[in-house]
Amino acid sequence: MSKGNRANLESLLRSACEKQHHYKEGSPSYAPEDRSDARKEFRDGNRKSLIVWDIILFAVPIVIPMPVLLKWAIWFICWIALVWFVLPDWFEALNTLSRRTRRVALLICAASFILSFGPIAHTQWREEKAAAASGTLSMPYPHAKNVLPVLEIGDSSSKLLWTGRPDANALSFVWDAGLRIENGSDGELKLSTQVRDHQGTLLVEVDKNKWRFYCCEKNYTDHSLEVKDKRGHVILQIVFLSDRVRIQGEWRDEFGNGVRLISPGTDAGGVIAPWTTPQTELKLEGTIAPIFKYPSKDHWGEFVDGITK
Question: pTM, whole model, 2 decimals?
């Protein structure tokens, strides 16, 4: 290597070492206090525009429908930003504390928000869940996998074991409605059925545990579903247990045909009451006892006294 090239290489290495030493000691451009000053200058210089953007972000959940949890997460961010604008010195003081102290301070800040607005958010969340038009039922844990497909008529102890094809109805009530129960690929029992009113209007449908509600009142949990008609009568009641599915309901068509599965009482034996005319239906009139409290917007997921599922 020539002397000129060697001199250039030594000069480059010396320059790199000086820069590394300069950064390690802490150059003015990288000093923490300068970064703090830069943040403060940015905040003070753009305070009005930042507040406007904070207000816009706050208004987004009000204008655009979104899940309650996402709505309150956005409002929490807005609240933190507002505190940053109103109490800038408090945030700057946090930077002088230890990391653990900063975490405790932020936790206290979050806790104050939750304590202030948590009850409102919880009420809105319950109302959102109560108003849901669809959902999925599942068996409670723990439960065995691939249990026998057994239907029980309410709590009557009358059980029906289905040993036929999984794609066939275990019970056929009217020409377009029945009950199908099968084992799913996840090892859980899967239930399918449809319920209509006297005019043939679909009120609720369940397809392999995925339910969709159309009318008129309902209440539910992860493992239970109950639907009422316009009269306030229970027309479908499903309860998943760890080894079977309890069901009560009324299935009818617009031609006057129908059948009711009902439990007259605990361990009292189930009743299957079919009819082919409105007159026969009147003679067999019976109501299914609800297991949930109503209205659901005030009692979402709450069972009547003495019932726990």
Answer: 0.73
The secondary structure of 177-198 as a DSSP string is: EEEEEEE-TTSSEEEEEEEE-T
Helices (H), the chain: 3-25, 32-45, 47-63, 68-86, 88-94, 99-130, 278-283, 296-299
How far apart (Å, rounded) are the C-alpha atoms in residues 259 and 272? 7
pLDDT digits (tens, 9 = 90+) for 248-301: 999 988 787 889 999 998 999 999 999 888 888 887 888 999 999 999 999 999
Q: Map out the domains of the chain as residue ranges.
A: 31-130, 136-299
Q: Are 94 and 102 in contact (CB under 8 A)?
A: yes
Q: What stretch of H or E contains 218?
A: strand 217-220
The predicted-structure confidence for 123-153, as pLDDT tens digits, reads as follows: 999 999 999 999 999 999 877 787 899 999 9
Radius of gyration of the chain (CA): 33
Residue 255 has a pLDDT of: 82
**124-129: which pairs have CB atoms within 8 A and are 24 or more residues apart?**
124/68, 124/71, 125/68, 125/69, 126/297, 126/300, 127/297, 127/300, 128/67, 128/68, 129/300, 129/301
Buried/exposed 136-161: b ≥16 CB within 10 Å, e otherwise = ebbbeeeeeeebebbbbbbbbebebe
CA-based nearest residue to 141, from 215, 211, 241, 224:
241
Which pLDDT tens digit goes with each residue over 6-59? 555 455 445 545 544 444 444 444 445 555 555 555 555 566 777 788 889 999
The answer to whether the CB of 32 falls within 8 A of the CB of 96 is no
